[in-house]
């Protein structure tokens, strides 16, 4: 019981981190785009101010390096911790760069650019980055007020005037910081609610799988299932007159259920461990993704007389952290489900499935390149599946 509770907490924490990562990655894309546009603006400004070409070249190289590191982090999906660290460095960089221009290049007029830095930092959806952003904005603007009071258009400013202005900035930044922290906490609360909802769904399906084992007097016959899959891939590659490139992957999936990670790496030296980890989701182990997806698919009702809301239905078709391989498997399982007869509907051929898919609105949830390939080779797929379905039925 204790192990189950620990497992549930681990799953919830991972789900919360996924939501946080998705939000931070999206905000990083926007912030990086703004940083790039600001870099172009600064380049034009430096040229107008006739800054030496050597220094301009250094600025350009620095900006390109920062933007390139951001692009790598975004497109290669670096870890949440790495993305947070990089985001904090971005905020620190932009304030440092603007401060350098103000003090070293004698460009006090660039003070307004601090609001650009503050906006970029404000976009990042992380409380730690928000804290750094507000602190640096308060510190930098305070320094500018005391060192370049002329930027405020004050004639013979007194220290008391500057102090009042400085305290006003500190107060405003304090209010904005509290507001930002409150908003981030509200977002985190929503992440927790979503994680709890998914955990409840997980537990319900887990109980159903246990009930299925009891009713079937044991787990599903995996040998029969894998035999049918082998026949399917043989038929598929035969129709396309190509080598059966799926055989080794299928062997790997079967080995995943009986070998340790160390044994798998030793046996499949030519396959990256990232692919092995991904294929674990496709094994028939009761704790893996494919079984939960199969169950969720089986709960979709066939309502031909109304359109489903594609914004709320079955988002896992294009889940943000799934690779193309997983997305193909998800859509394949979805298609195969509707090729079989269910208690409340007849089985569909490929044309009927396509018609239903478009009418339901679920086609918007499928990866476009996967859907276009499906449409292009629908006749081939129809023939292959017709032949494969003549084999033994295996319940997931």
Shape, please? elongated
Number of strands: 0
Instruction: Report the radius of gyration as a whole number of Å.
Output: 28 Å
Helical segment count: 15
Order of helices and strands: HHHHHHHHHHHHHHH
Structural class category = mainly alpha
Instruction: Quickly count the domains.
Output: 2
- Low-pLDDT segments: 303-314, 392-396
* Beta-strand percentage range: under 5%
Task: Sketch the major β-sheet.
Answer: none
Percentage of helical residues? over 70%
Average residue pLDDT: 77
First-to-last CA distance: 26 Å
Assembly level: single chain
Task: List the SSEs and their pairings.
Elements: H1 2-48, H2 53-75, H3 80-104, H4 113-123, H5 127-147, H6 159-215, H7 222-239, H8 247-256, H9 261-267, H10 273-279, H11 289-298, H12 324-339, H13 350-360, H14 368-376, H15 378-388
Describe the structure.
The structure is a single chain. This protein is an all-alpha fold. The protein has two domains: 193 residues; 167 residues, no CATH class. Helix content is 71%, strand content 0%. It is built from 15 helices and no strands. α1 packs parallel to α3. It is elongated, with a radius of gyration of 28 Å. 15% of the residues are buried. The C terminus is likely disordered.
